[in-house]
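Tutorial handout. Part one gives the primary structure; part two gives the three-dimensional structure as tokens.
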Amino acid sequence: MLRGFIALLIFQGIGESIVYFGHLPIPGPVIGMMLLFLTLQARNQGTPASLESIAHLMIRYLYLFLIPACVGCFFLIKNNLEGWIIIIASVAISTFATMIIGALMMKYMLTRHQKKSRENS
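Part two.
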């Protein structure tokens, strides 16, 4: 599990470095996770057990990572009341867009899976 955690930190560090030196508007951890994904796809050997176990552990306690951000939002209400309409609208629009894209992706994947099942039969 320690090897998986170190791998996650290394890829996050690489992503942060790319963002810092490239002056990109994308968060470093996002670039790091894309690089990790591409690396795992290039290896074509599946996910290592150490990486899989640390990922499951982090997902299990993901809500603990989000608590500080949520608490910080409550303290910002007093200072920036005029910005909350924009924030709520952007959250609603992005949630709706995520639901639509997720549904379309699920439909595509199910259609693809059914086609492969018919070809193998």
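Part three, for discussion. Residues 1-60 form one domain. The chain has a mean pLDDT of 88.
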